[in-house]
Structures are given as C-alpha cells and as structure tokens.
Amino acid sequence: MALPLNLLPDEASPEWMNKADNAWQLTAAALVGLQSIPGLVILYGSMVKGKWAVNSAFMAFYAFAAVLVCWVGWAYRMSFGERLAPFLGKPGVELDERYLLGQAFLGLFPTATMVFFQGVFAAITLILVAGALLGRMNFRAWMLFVPLWLTCSYTLGVIDFAGGYVIHLSSGVAGFTAAYWVGPRADKDRKNFPPNNLILMLAGAGLLWIGWTGFNGRAPFAASSAASLAVLNTHVCAATSSLTWLVLDSFLSSRPSVIGAVNGMITGLVCITPPAGLVQGWAAILMGAVSGSVPWYTMTVLHDRVGLLRRVDDPMSVLHTHAVAGTLGSVLTGFFAVPKLCRLFYMAPDWEKYTGLAYGLQDKSNNAGFRQMGVQLLGVGFIVCLNVTVTSAICLLIGLAVPLRLSEGEMRAGDEAVHGERGFVLAADRVRFEITKNNSVYDMEDEAPSIESRSLGDVRMV
C-alpha cells in the first residue's frame, strides 16, 4: 500500500501506537455503526405500520449521516476539546491530518480513531431520540433538530463505563420531551400501529444486541481484561433481562410476546452500559432481572395510570427502555461497582473514591459508598433537567421556522405523501402487470395475474 507523499513509514505506524488497541477501537466503532446502519434502520422500519416504514427508517439514516458531518465540523472539539464555559466546549474543525494522526488523549491510538468512534456513539444517540417521534414529525423539522440537539446537548464526574448517562438517559428524556412538543400520531395510528415485519424486526434487534459488544467493550480504550469482562457482562445482563420480560409477559400478561422479549433485551443492554466492566458477573444477572421487571411494570402497568405518560405519544417507548433502564443502570452502578475493577478502569491514584455502596458497607468505608450513590443520583437529575430544558428550547425554536408536525393529510397517507415513495410494492397492491404470450402483450390493471396466466409467459411489474 502506498503511503501519502508527506507521510514517512515510521509516522504511519509510530512507536507510541498500540496496534491491537487501535484495531479493537476501529472494530468496536464499526460494530456501533452497524447498530445504527443497518440495525436501527431495520428495527424502526419494521416495527411501525407499513405506511411509515420508509419515513421511520429514513429518520435513522439521515441522523447517522448528519451527525458525522457535524461531528468532524465542530461537535467533537466541543465534547473533547477546550472548554469555552463550564458546560460548553469550544467548537473546532476536526479535519487536519496533523491533528488526526497524532495521539489520542490516552496515547494508544490516533485521534482519528477516537473521532470516528465517538462520532458513531453520538449518531446512535440521535437515532434513539427518533424512536419517540416516528409517525408524525415533519422530516424537515427533524433535519434541523439533529444538528441543533447534537450541538447543544452533549457533557459529567459520575461512574459511567460506556455511556449510560450521555446516550441512554439523555436520549430517553430528550425523546419523551420532543414527543410532548410534536404531539401524538393520528388517532387511527395510535390505536392500531402493528409492526409490518416481525421477522425483520428480530434481525434489526439482533444487530443491535451483537453490536453492543463494541458499544461497551471499547470503553477501556484498550484490548484489555476490563474490555473482556464488559463484553461478557453485557450479553449476560441482556439475556437475563429479555428472559425476565418474557416470563412476566407469559404469566402476568396475556401471552409471550416477541416485541416484549426485544424490549427486555434493550432494557438489559441499556442497564448494563454504565457498569459493564465494573461489576461482578452475579451483579450483571441481578441487574438483568431488575431491568427486565421494572421497565416492564412502568410500560405495561404504570404507563396507563399516569396522565402525562398517557398523553405523550412515544411509539418505541424510549422513555421506558432508555430513560428508566438508564436510570436503573446508573443507580445500580453506584451500588454494585467493585473498587478493584474501578481501579483497573480509571487507572488513577484516587480510584478509591469510586466505590459501590455494597462494597463501602462491606469494607466499612460507608462515606465513599454513600458519596458515590449520591453522585450517581445527582448525575441523573442533571441529565434530566438539562435535556428537558434544551430539547424544549430547540423544539420551540424549530417551530418558528417550520412546522414540527406533519399535516393531518400527510399523517393519513404516510410515506407516499411525505417522501413520494413506498416501502413495499406487493402483487395485491393494484399493480399493472405486463404479460407476454405468443408475442402478444396483455395489460391487466388493478389485479394480479392468476397462477395459470403466470405459467403462460414472462410476468413483470411495470
């Protein structure tokens, strides 16, 4: 492979770069990218009514592209560069090769690797927000919302191994808040909104689940033992949570549900994200049981009893699967975090302050345990307040420029009215067929040809 003219061989593979760590970070970034494209694109496009398949998938697709451009344009430096104010970073362009080929802040891989990985993380956050807005948000408003929310809502000193606060709690609260301002779907859609393809939905959910290997496994920024523990805990917690939800559906609801099992998988993945490499395996199982039961209760029981929850239309239930599950993970991290594992992760002399309450009580270091639990709860409160405020301001601002909500006619028609495109074209959908037989052409409109006529010649849709 030829090197760039201005790049010497030793600069292409400098001594400071750990090749294994760099390879793992790039692999993990690709896995997280696959969670979005195609994972959530498929999941959203298949979990909605057929007439919204294109719009729902396209919202995710657009967000992925828009975030990456904004990320290298100014948002990465705002998140990881110099501070302009206590909670505001200084914007900066991230396209100079002299900077991108230099050491990232841990010195194990190039900054370009760090920029890409954090970019796909930011992208999936916006795509999760989209889950609360499907089936009625004006696409032009969404095009404005993505860069504005990315710019104004990303920063904290809590134990957060892989993004439970900044991604899941943020997206859940922001999605629910935006859904409040956009308003509900059309009454007909809200009452009857069946998935258009459950098998395809499972494929999207599978990409999301396996992609979480990179989501949590990259958090130590090294191909280390902490990364291995994080990956194992992630999948054990997700499996336990999915099974817990399935059992509750089977015995306390009407029947076992595929959608319920997927919801349980998601809540388990979200819950284990803050402590993935910081807790014991038995704690991951306990967290899976909690994440499969508490969000199940809030979604299936509490949701119908609280007026605000009933009023706000959240098609993908991001409040329950991400905000509630993210809060559980954050709080349980403050309880189960193992001091030794925190030392391996933080590699800092003051690691003793990161002590889960359970171990603080055991080691008689109660102050450290209660302090960490308080910090975790404070972090939850900060994220909730920040996202309610910022998301509300952004929605009100966008509403001055373009309507936040589609018109009633567009909501009745769906994809064809919004994009002029359809997700599915089937033989039963009044399609014209052109049938060739003995050099003659027959046009049949409004009905598909019979099996007999198919066997007489070539059949193709026009």
How would you sum up this structure, described in words?
- By secondary structure, the chain is mainly alpha-helical.
- The protein is 64% helix and 4% strand.
- The protein has two domains: 12-412, Ammonium transporter fold, CATH 1.10.3430; 425-461, no CATH class.
- The strands form two sheets. It has a three-stranded antiparallel sheet, with no helix packed on it.
- A hairpin with a 2-residue loop joins strand 3 and strand 4 (440-444).
- Helix 9 (198-217) runs parallel beside helix 11 and helix 10 runs antiparallel to helix 11 (258-272).
- The protein starts with 8 loop residues before the first helix and ends with a strand.
- Residues 431-462 have low confidence and may be disordered.
Task: Describe what is shown at a glance.
The chain is mainly alpha-helical and 462 residues long. The chain has helices spanning 9-12, 19-47, 53-80, 97-100, 111-130, 139-152, 164-182, 187-191, 198-217, 225-252, 258-272, 281-300, 307-311, 318-336, 339-346, 357-362, 366-401, 408-413, 415-419, 451-454, and strands at residues 83-85, 88-89, 433-437, 440-444, 458-461. The chain has two domains: 12-412, Ammonium transporter AmtB like domains (Ammonium transporter fold, Orthogonal Bundle), CATH 1.10.3430; 425-461, no CATH class.
